[in-house]
Specification:
Length: 404
């Protein structure tokens, strides 16, 4: 028998026991679908992390003060930011900022959101483009002008009837003019909505919203963003920033830092690696279900060999070679796995789309996961189908013809 004849014979045998064949394939269907779905969910999560890294801004460090043991925080100042930009060659820009939560009101609508007091270069440091309008000028920043840039979420909540540009909002009972709308950023890697924000000049927050007596040091800031020259110089920029701030804060060799310099991209990449490890683990567990499906195939093939003992004996008696019988049963096992794999691909893709729609989870169907699942399923079919095929080929034709 050639391969085509073995294939036709195997299909005929499987077609004669449709229900049994379908139940046998069920383990393969579930295994392939599980591999595709698990990898799609994990890959989607990793893709989301990549997008979140981009949303933070390229080559970015964040400097923030450490908490005191007795309560409160140490001080970071605008002068610290100026010194970092001036004295560290690997740093191209710094953006100090202060932040408070306020309720923004317009008409009968209001929205509680972080209000960030920043310098005009803040959006450049964060790689944050405008969707409409303009950034406040240096003159507006120095004069504590009452102008505001709104994030996408705030704009959606407060201005559903048109563009907010040129319109008035109240922040802390003080009227502000909307001069710009920020482009959408989405969720940060830490779960905060970056689009629920408003930006005003730093001096406006300090003098008009917080009040001049609110802080011990009028030059204090809540955090500083530091933009390195490129990704390769980020680690060096972090080390030099830490060294410079220790000098400026007059810390001795045994003193702990009163600040923290965070490499945001490194933190997020660590999350990504953890997600990749979890994806590999889930895919491995899903592959185990394929092994279980393979065991069920071997079990059913052994039953099939027992049921067809007289047929095997008759074929041997009329001149069939043992390798023809072995190839026939092995072909049946592989066909079961291939058909189960095709059904599993459909179920896996459908399950991935359903997860994305119902749970709001981003999924990414990877072609390599489909090839992995199908390839592993075929190998399982060959491995677990070999023993029944070998057993069929080794039957004695005389004993097989006597079998009842």
């Amino acid at each position: 028998m050639n391969f085509l004849q073995s294939l036709v014979t195997a299909l005929g045998a499987l077609n004669g026991n449709r229900l049994r064949s379908a139940l046998t394939m069920l383990g393969i269907v579930i295994g392939v679908a599980a591999v595709i779905t698990m990898v799609a969910i994990g890959s989607g999560a990793q893709q989301r992390v990549v997008q979140q890294i981009r949303s933070l801004g390229a080559n970015l460090l964040q400097v923030q003060p450490e908490e005191r043991r007795g309560g409160g925080y140490y001080l970071l100042t605008e002068q610290d930011a100026v010194a970092i930009a001036r004295e560290i060659s690997t740093v191209v820009l710094t953006a100090p900022a202060v932040q408070e939560h306020f309720r923004i009101v317009t008409g009968n609508r209001n929205w509680n959101t972080p209000v960030v007091g920043a310098l005009p270069n803040y959006l450049e440091v964060r790689d944050w483009p405008l969707d409409a309008g303009r950034v406040f000028t240096e003159r507006e920043a120095v004069s504590a002008a009452k102008v505001v840039l709104l994030g996408q979420r705030v704009t959606e909540r407060l201005f559903r009837d048109g563009s907010p540009l040129g319109r008035q909002v109240r922040i802390g009972d003080i009227p502000f003019t909307v001069i710009g709308v920020l482009a959408g950023k989405g969720l940060s890697p830490f779960g905060t909505d970056q689009d629920s924000v408003a930006f005003v000049p730093m001096q406006t927050v300090k003098l008009r919203l917080q009040g001049s007596g609110h802080r011990v040091n009028p030059y204090a800031v809540d955090f500083i963003y530091v933009k390195a020259r490129d990704a390769r110089s980020l680690a060096q920029a972090k080390k030099q920033t830490e060294s410079l701030l220790r000098q400026r804060h007059r810390l001795m060799s045994g003193d702990e830092d009163d600040f923290e310099v965070m490499d945001l991209s490194a933190m997020v990449l660590a999350q990504r690696e953890a997600g990749r490890t979890l994806t590999t683990l889930l895919a491995s567990v899903a592959l185990v279900s394929l092994l279980v499906g393979g065991i069920s195939i071997m079990n059913i093939m052994l039953v099939s060999v027992s049921e067809r003992t007289r047929e095997i004996g008759l074929r041997l008696a009329v001149g069939a070679r043992r390798r023809d019988l072995r190839n026939q049963f092995l072909t049946e096992a592989v066909i079961l796995c291939l058909i189960g794999s095709i059904a599993g691909i459909g179920v896996g893709v459908a399950a991935s789309v359903a997860v994305a729609a119902l749970a709001g989870w981003e999924v990414l169907i990877e072609p390599w996961s489909i090839l992995l699942a199908v390839g592993f399923a075929v190998l399982v079919g060959m491995f677990f189908g070999f023993y029944p095929a070998y057993k069929a080929s080794r039957l004695d034709p005389i004993e097989a013809l006597r079998f009842e």
